[in-house]
Amino acid sequence: MKVLLLSIISVAVLISVLLSAWALLERSNMKIEIAALNKDVESMQAEMKTLKSQPAQAGRPAAPAPQPVVEKVVSIDDDPMKGDPKAPVTIVEFSDFECPFCKRSNDGAIKQINEEYVSKGKVRLVFRDYPLPFHKKAIPAAVAANCAGEQDKYWEVHEFLFQNPKTNLDIPTIIGSAEELGMDKAKFEACVNDKSKEKEITKDMEDGQKYGVRGTPSYFIGKTTDGDEITGTFVRGAQPYAVFKEHIDEQLKEVN
Description:
Elements: H1 2-53, E1 71-75, E2 81-82, E3 89-95, H2 100-107, H3 109-118, E4 123-129, H4 138-149, H5 154-163, H6 165-168, H7 171-176, H8 185-192, H9 198-210, E5 218-223, E6 229-236, H10 241-255
Parallel strand pairs: 3-4
Antiparallel strand pairs: 1-6, 2-4, 3-5, 5-6
Helix pairs in contact: 2-3, 3-10, 4-5
């Protein structure tokens, strides 16, 4: 009996010792973890202090570099023109009806230019076609717009095409909207189906390539002349209105 009692007491003592050791170990581990957390906090505080000491502009993306000034002698050809033919400044646009960046520019900067300059007789806008090869609907759409021009409805169809490219670039949709856009439907359809009309599109593309156009939209802004050419500053891409305004105002100052 005594042996059993002593065994029980020994086991109890051993358990007590083990529990004490475990508790000490846990405290030790906790201290290590706390110390590690304190180091992390100190590191974060040091980083915050470093960031606060840096200039306010640090970390912000740099403003895009201005485009180099490139001037080209560009023909207005016999392409559609909006505005007063005698306006002092001419913008020649090379564009693609299926190009999302062209739509963005048309709905944004070009719309403002029409409101602030074209409508006031200060700028005339010439639209030349530059359908990109991977845009399968772009050439038929350009042909349709030029066919509309034969019925004096070029700009109406131009806006129709840019309005909703997902549906409005389909030829059946364009032809189906002919009467609504004020055209003779039969005459318009015959023109759209005439493959020879693509020659004008090809001419625009060839000219654009000579002038250095590689993508759309591309613009040339220069003073209007008595002939069919201008010396224009090359503006690449769907630039904000402020970029166009700067070039237009500079040209207007030189004229005045």
